């Protein structure tokens, strides 16, 4: 009897999890699932995504994309913030509703530039999970899906945007150009390995 009760409890827990996941995806399909918003956006009284009313925050976000158009990589953009001492509004873990002005790091800048929310697009399911076999064991892994056609939810013109969708796609293409990969052909990022003389030791003065 205890074994049967345990099996039924596991089945019931699985059904509850499935129903909760279905409800989450249903809300996301309507663009109503609340998420942690990046700097520059807030929720209004009706739980709609709107531009942050703080003019300083708006100016900082717009300046971010303007400066990235003049840089060759996110790392160079982060160095520009560091060299000029320019702070940027950041959301710290556990303080989602409060902005902290600090020097941005490369990882944070990369995440913001890759976020489709700034292009007025409500996206859900950009990260997908899959099971891989490693040394005879099943390991759960996650991967970031770059193509909007593979996202579970992609609602265009959902809210006010900071940049156009065309600018967003151009930014993603520039990020892909400097992404390190084994094939060094047409790679604009750091050399790291290869047949070049003094690979990774000499940097262009420009």
What does this structure look like?
It is built from five helices and eight strands; from the N terminus they run αββααββαββββα. It is of the alpha+beta class. Among the domains are: 36-118 and 159-185, Alpha-Beta Complex (Hect, E3 ligase catalytic domain fold); 122-155, no CATH class. The strands form four sheets. The protein has a two-stranded antiparallel sheet. A two-stranded antiparallel ribbon has the order 3-4. Strands 5-8 form a two-stranded antiparallel sheet. β1 (41-43) and β2 form a beta hairpin. The model has no long low-confidence stretch (mean pLDDT 82).
What is the topological layout?
Elements: H1 2-29, E1 41-43, E2 49-51, H2 55-68, H3 74-84, E3 88-91, E4 99-102, H4 106-113, E5 122-124, E6 127-134, E7 137-144, E8 153-155, H5 165-177
Helix pairs in contact: 3-4
Number of helices: 5
H-E string:
HEEHHEEHEEEEH
Helix content: 25-40%
The CATH topology of the domain at 36-118 and 159-185 is given as Hect, E3 ligase catalytic domain fold
Assembly form of the protein: single chain
Uncertain parts: none
